[in-house]
Amino acid sequence: MRALVVEDDRRIAADLQRALESAGFRVELVEDGETAWFRGGTENYDLIVLDLGLPRLDGLTVLKRWRAEGCESPVLVLTARGAWAERVEGIDAGADDYLPKPFRMEELIARARALVRRAGGRATAQQQVGRLTVDLNRMLAAVDGVPVALTPLEFRLLAYLALHRDRVVPPTELLEHLYGDDDAKEANAVEAVITRLRRKLGAGIVGTRRGFGYHLEDQA
Fold it and tell me: Which is a Pfam family this sequence falls into (predicted)?
């Protein structure tokens, strides 16, 4: 899952990056509103964490522009404690949730996971697809109740397929959501991860629609 963190306080940004990465997100950091507006409007993210007090362009303006331009990524707004008017205006502008500073990272992660699940039309953290179980909170996978040891990258790919199990996911979309800007992005990288997943999960779990992409097979 791919997350954009928009925060000009570098210490807070670094803390957010560590927490989200430990929860299975691939995190990109932005420090100012103008860059955030461009990135959020031209890239697809599973989650955006947006501070409202930003240089060059304030967070509320960024959010309004995103929504006016059709950006549908879930946005978790960070606000100063007690700034209730900001929170109301943020939600009216299109924020999906808000969190007042200071906050506990555990709460932020819980809210982030809930936003990602809701965006994918999933209400619970435990996703069941036939014989496959994917626990998004504990970052665990099992087939027929037997745990399967996965690397973080393998789990991110499997979790993305589970959240979007009602459709075929193109390799280009998986590349975009699995790898950061500094990583080499090649189509065969996704194919290599899919091959490892199939080896570990067994046959009949991860399917391919040739020329279109990958999907989870409902074996029930």
Answer: Trans_reg_C
